[in-house]
Amino acid sequence: MALAKTCSEEAESSDLMIAELGQCSAEERIAFLLLKLMKRVATRNVIREQQYPFPLRQQHIADAVGLTAVHVSRVLGTFRDRGIAERSYGVLKVGDLGELTHLGSLN
After folding, report:
1. N or C: which end of the chain has fewer CB within 10 A?
2. Which residues make beta-bridge pairs with 94?
């Protein structure tokens, strides 16, 4: 029963997150994804000076957040220009964690 309850709670939580992400802008969706991945990568202690390995391509990001690769490219360019985050050569460098967190919070 405990396992069934846990699975049910996880499914409900996922459904709520999907509904919330569906109402977010492209910037908010991508910021949310980057933060979620940062949290997972942080458990491996590979984040150095707000940089971490990031092998995902624009198409991977687009598929994950429900956008086109062209739109993801525009948003990542905006993030770069605003100093929020920059992706290059398989590394993501976060320049403004506060702004990324502000954009990526679902609340």
Report:
1. C
2. 85
* Per-residue model confidence as pLDDT tens digits over 6-42: 777 777 766 566 656 666 889 999 998 898 888 888 7
Q: Name the residue range of residue 99's domain.
A: 25-104
Whether the Cβ atoms of residue 45 and residue 85 lie closer than 8 Å to each other: no
DSSP 3-state of 48: strand
Q: Compare 8 and 94 and report the one with higher pLDDT.
A: 94
- Between CA 83 and CA 55, with CA 43 as vertex, the angle to 5 degrees is 55
Helix, strand, or coil (residue 97) = helix
Measured over the CA atoms of residue 17, residue 23, residue 24 and residue 29, the dihedral's sign is positive
Contact 85, 79 (CB under 8 A): yes
CATH number of the domain at 61, please. Answer: 2.60.120.10
